[in-house]
Design goal:
Number of helices: 3
Shape: elongated
Radius of gyration: 24 Å
Order of helices and strands: EEEEEHHH
Strand order of the largest sheet: 2-1-3
Structural class: alpha+beta
Helix content: 25-40%
Largest sheet: 3 strands, antiparallel
C-alpha cells in the first residue's frame, strides 16, 4: 500500500503521513507518495523530501567515561569495578 507524506511547501516539514490523505490539500502544502511505509530506522528529510536512514546510535561505555573524567588511579578503578560488580558493569556498557 502506498505511503503518503503531506508536507509544507515553504520548508518541507511534514504535516501528516500515512496511507490516507484528504482529497483537497490545505493551502501551502504538497503531497508526496512512496511505494511503501519507511523502515523504522528512517526519518523524513525536509531538505530532500525523502526518507533518509537515521544515523547509527552511539554506544557509550559509561564506566570508561567515569574513569577518564574522574582521573582515577588504577587502584581506584579496581575499587569502583569491585563496588559495582560485574553485572552492573555489563549493564552500563
Amino acid at each position: 500500500m502506498a505511503w503518503k507524506v503531506l508536507y509544507r511547501t515553504r520548508d518541507g516539514r511534514p504535516v501528516s503521513q500515512g496511507t490516507r490523505m484528504p482529497k483537497k490539500l490545505p493551502a501551502g502544502t504538497a503531497l508526496k507518495e512512496f511505494a511503501a511505509q519507511p523502515a523504522y530506522n528512517q526519518s523524513w528529510n525536509p531538505s530532500t523530501l525523502v526518507f533518509d536512514d537515521d544515523p547509527p546510535k552511539v554506544v557509550r561505555d559509561r564506566l570508561a567515561e567515569l574513569k577518564t573524567r574522574a582521573n582515577l588511579k588504577p587502584a581506584q578503578e579496581r575499587a569502583v569495578e569491585q563496588w559495582m560488580g560485574e553485572e552492573q558493569i555489563e549493564r552500563y556498557r
